[in-house]
Amino acid sequence: MLFHYSRYLKPVVPGSDIGYSLFGGGYMGVDIFFIISGFIIVHSTARPEHARPLDFLIRRFFRVVPIAQVATLVYFAIIFTRPPLGLLFKSLCFLPSEDIDPPKFGYPVVPQEWTLSYELLFYGLFAAALVFTHRRRVVLCALAILGCVIGLQWALGGPISFRPNAVFLPSRRVDFAPAEVIGLAGNPIMLDFIAGMLLASAYRAKDAWLHSGARNAARAFGTMMIGVFAFCYLSPVRPGNGLLDKGLGALCLVAGSLLIELTLPGAKPPRRSKGIFAAFLWLGTISYTLYLVHQGISERLLRFLASLFFGVKVDGLPGFLSLILLSLALASGAHVFLERAFIWVGKRLTSPRGSHVRAAGLGA
Questions:
Q1: SS3 call for 305
Q2: Rg of the chain over CA atoms, in angstroms?
Q3: Are 25 and 239 spatial neighbours (Cβ–Cβ below 8 Å)?
Q4: Nearest CA to 63 among 4, 131, 116, 130?
C-alpha cells in the first residue's frame, strides 16, 4: 500500500522523490505474499482431514475469489473511463489480458489483482497434488510448478529464464493456448510458492533440527537474514521480482522471522506493548481486503470526496495520510461485512454436514 501511495509524497520535498526513497522497494511485497501463501497452504493442510482436495478448493475459492470479484465490479462501476467489457470478463475470471510485460501480462480492472492469477494457479496445482498424496504433497506440487516453469517456457519457443520479467513471449500465436496464458503458467515467479512450502516443511520439522543448544545460533542467523531483507529493500541493485532478485530479500524476511519466533517458545509480549501487537494482528486480519481496496477504490473515493466537499486535490502528505486512513477503514468494513461471510460459507460447505449435503446432491 505504501509503495503504491509513494507517488503522493513527491511534493513534500521539492527536487527529491522522498516517497520512492522510503517505499520504492515495496514491490517485493508480491514475493512476500507468495512465499507466505506457500507456507500457509502447507501448514494448514498438515492434518489429512483438512486436506481433502475438493474441500481445500472450496475453502480457498470462498476465501479469495468472491470478494475480489466484488472489488472488481465496484471499481468498474465507479471508474470514469470504463475499460472494455472483455477486460471486465477476463478480470472476473482472473485471466491475463495481454501478451506483454511479464509477470503481469496486462493489468486487470483492479490493477493489483494480477497476482491472484498466480495464487489461484498455485491452489489448483496443490489440490492436484493432494489427489495423489498427502504426505508428499509438497514434493509433488513443487515438481508440478517446476514442470510448468520449464516446460511451458520451452513451449513458447524461447530461452528458459528464472527471472519473472524475462519470460520470452513469441510474436506468433502458440497453437494450444494464448501466449499470455502459457507465459503466466510458466512464469518463474511461481517458484516463490515452492520457497514458502519448503519453509513450512522445515518449520513443521523443527523438533528434529532445532534443539536448545542451537537457539542462540538460530536467533542470530534469523536476525542476519532480516538484515539481508533490509539491504535488498533499500538497494537499487537487481530490481525485479523473483528469487534471483528482490524475492531473495522476501525469502530472508519470512525465514528470518520464523527462526526468531522458533527461538522464543512461549514468549509473551510485554503488557505495555500489547496494543502494538494487537494492531499488527488487526492489520493481518484485514490484509487481504486492504490489498483489494487500497489501489483504485480508495483513491477514487477520496478524490471524489476531496473535490466535492473541499475543492482540493489529493496530494502531498495530507493526501498520503488520508489515503492510508480511508483504506484501513474500507478494508475493515469489507472484512466485517463481506469477507467474513464468504469465509463462513466456505467453512460451512466443507464441514461434515456440508460435505454430506454435497454428496447427497451429487448422488441425486
A1: helix
A2: 22
A3: no
A4: 116
Contacts of 102 (CB under 8 A, 6+ apart): 164, 165, 166, 167, 169, 183, 184, 187
Mean of pLDDT values over 112-130? 98
pLDDT, the chain, mean: 90
Q: Which of 39, 189, 19 is nearest to 114 (CA)?
A: 189
CA 123 to CA 129: how far, in whole Å? Answer: 10
Grid cell digits, residue 310: 473541499
Instruction: Say whether pLDDT at 362 is over 80.
Output: no
Q: Which three cell numbers stand for residue 21?
A: 526513497
Q: What is the SS3 assignment for 135?
A: coil
Instruction: At 171, give phi and psi (nearest 5°).
Output: -75, -25
End-to-end CA distance of the chain: 48
268 by DSSP, 3-state: which?
coil
Q: Which of 33, 5, 29, 40 is closest to 19 using CA atoms?
A: 5
What letter would DSSP give residue 210?
-
Percent over 70 (pLDDT), the chain: 93
Burial 15-37 (b: 16+ CB within 10 A, else e): eeeebeeebebbebbbbbbbbbb
Its pTM stands at: 0.92
Cell matching residue 328 = 484501513
pLDDT at 216: 82
The Cα 252–Cα 236 span in angstroms is 17
Say how far apart CA 326 and CA 77 lie, in whole Å: 19
- Whole-angstrom Cα distance, residue 108 to residue 125? 23
Please give the grid coordinates belonging to residue 202: 522445515
